[in-house]
Amino acid sequence: MKLYSYFRSSAAYRVRIALNLKGLAYETVPVHLLKDGGQQYSDAYSAINPTHLVPALVDGDLAIGQSLAILEYIEETHPQPPLLPPDAAGRARVRAIAQNIACDIHPLNNLRVLKYLKNQLGQDDDARNAWYAHWIAVGLEGVEGLLAGHPDTGRFCHGDQPGYADACLVPQVFNARRMGCDLSAYPTIVRIDAACAELDAFADAAPASQPDSEG
Questions:
Q1: Which of 32, 5, 46 shows the shortest CA–CA distance to 209?
Q2: Cβ(187)–Cβ(173) under 8 Å?
Q3: Are 71 and 136 within one domain?
Q4: Would you say 26 and 1 are in contact if contact means Cβ atoms under 8 Å apart?
Q5: 81, 109, 141: which is the final residue of a domain?
Q6: 100 and 47 in one domain?
Q7: At what angle do helices 164-178 and 187-197 cross, to 10 degrees?
Q8: CA distances from 103 to 10, 11, 44, 96 (A)
Q9: pLDDT tens string for the chain (215 positions)?
C-alpha cells in the first residue's frame, strides 16, 4: 500500500495512526501542500485524487481519498485488530465522535479555508488565528461533552483499546496545540490524548516522525 501524505495534514495523520494500529506496512509518498504551488495540484497527483486533497491510499489498482473512507476500508479488509466496537450502538457512538472532528471541526480550519480567509477575504494572521481558535473551542466543547462521564469512555474514546475515534482525536489536538489553543476546558480529551501518546502506533504517526517532516 502507498499513502500519499503531508506530514502536518491531520487527515493523513488519522490514516497513519489507523494503519499503525492495524500493523499494516505502507509506503509514504509525500505530497507537499505548499511547495510548487501545492503539489496536490500536480497532474500526477490529480490522476490519483482529483479532489486535490490528502491523503490518498493506493492499494493495488484501487485509489481511495477521504480519510474516513480509508479508515472504513482498512477496517473491512483487515478486521484485526478492530478499530470499531463489535456492537451497532458502540460503532454509532465512535463514528459520531469521529465525524464531529473530521466533518465539523476540521473542514473549517484546514489549509484551503485559512488561505481563502487570507488571500480572498484579506484577513490578517490575528483574524485567522481567532477564527481557528473559535471553531476549535466550539468543536472540542462538543467532543468533550460526548466523552466526559459517558459510561463507554475508558482509557480511550471508547473503552480501553484505541481505535477509530482516537485516530481522529489525536491529530485535532495536535493542531490545536500547534495553533496555541487553550485546552484546559477539555480534561477528558487531554487525558485520552496523553494515553494515546504512550503508544508506538501514535508516536510513529506523529508529524515529527514522518519522512517529509520539517520539524
A1: 5
A2: no
A3: no
A4: yes
A5: 81
A6: no
A7: 110
A8: 12, 11, 27, 10
A9: 999 999 999 999 999 999 999 999 999 999 999 999 999 999 999 999 999 999 999 999 999 999 999 999 999 999 999 999 999 999 999 999 999 999 999 989 888 899 899 999 999 999 988 999 999 999 999 999 999 999 999 999 999 999 999 999 999 999 999 999 999 999 999 999 999 999 999 999 999 999 999 86
- Asked if the structure places residue 215 within a domain, the reply is no
Domain end call among 40, 66, 81: 81
Cell output for 11? 487527515
Domain residues for the domain of 104 are: 88-202
E strand or H helix at 29: strand 27-30
57: which strand partners? 3, 64
Q: Could you identify the residue written with the cell 508506538?
A: 200
Number of domains in the chain: 2
Q: Which three cell numbers stand for residue 117?
A: 480567509
Cβ burial, residue 193 (10 Å; 0-12/13-18/19+): buried
Note whether residue 46 is domain-resident: yes
**What's the predicted TM-score (pTM) here?**
0.95
> CA quadruple 120, 168, 179, 153: dihedral positive or negative?
positive
Residues 58 and 95 in one domain: no
